[in-house]
Amino acid sequence: MLKGLLIDATLKRYGLPPWMKEYVQEYLKGSEVGAARYAISFISVGRKKGVVTKTEIVLPNGKRFRKDQIAHLLSLFYYGECRLSRISWSWSIDNGHDMEMARHFGAMHLVEVRRARAIKNLIEAFGYKVEDPSDELKDVFDYVEQLRTSQERVVAKKIFLNYAYAQPFGQVFYKAFYPVSPEYMRSFGKEFSIRSADAIYGERSAENIIVRGEIDTQKLLELATEILVRVARSIDAELPRARKAGIEREALLLRNIAVAYPFHRLKELGVDLDVKREIANVKRKAR
What we know:
Layout: H1 2-13, H2 21-27, H3 33-40, E1 51-52, E2 56-58, E3 64-66, H4 67-93, H5 99-125, H6 135-145, H7 150-177, H8 182-193, H9 197-211, H10 217-236, H11 239-244, H12 248-268, H13 275-286
Antiparallel strand pairs: 1-2, 2-3
């Protein structure tokens, strides 16, 4: 009972959707209330401050990470933003007669370039260089890049990639590490927290495409599955590192949320689908 109330309070505090409770409960299964408090404090932004040492970053809850582990995670973020910027630029040139969407992708290219620069600056501030991504992560963006219609492109970016990567991983990273080092995180947060008119336009366009049924439901779910299977594989490729860092269970939680979030968002936008069945289908194909 107390654990459930703790989860409810945490979800409400961080503005997270109620459906996540099931995933957090599974993650905390068998944990005592004290352990649950510790796990949830992973994204605590209370009065406690973390510490940055020469080799480590210590979160407010006492969890320790080697700097090279954080630099590796940031390198993944950096690769994603670099690929998105290149994809946006190519789509702004090759977008048929949809001039408004071409303009949108051109504007987002500039936003994503600034975001990539902010991530690289953070990596270098910690004293590291950008690392190469896994083949599995490359495959996610290779697939998205080859999409041909404006509808598929904007939905892939603003619904599937946003809710699979940015919402679970980017938000958790920012909330977990800002209390540790606001001087490092301020510029990072500035680039990612400001929602420009162009970003809002893309989000609204993607939502309208789904609500109006401009992409057939079967085709929409096939597109979601193709992308999310690749997303799941890209996260699974990082599990050995997460195991060494002592956060494998947290990584698995975020992977499950990354697969689930886009399907829940589609459901909220009126798409007729069985969320659990679609998630199971993605997990089966990702094995």
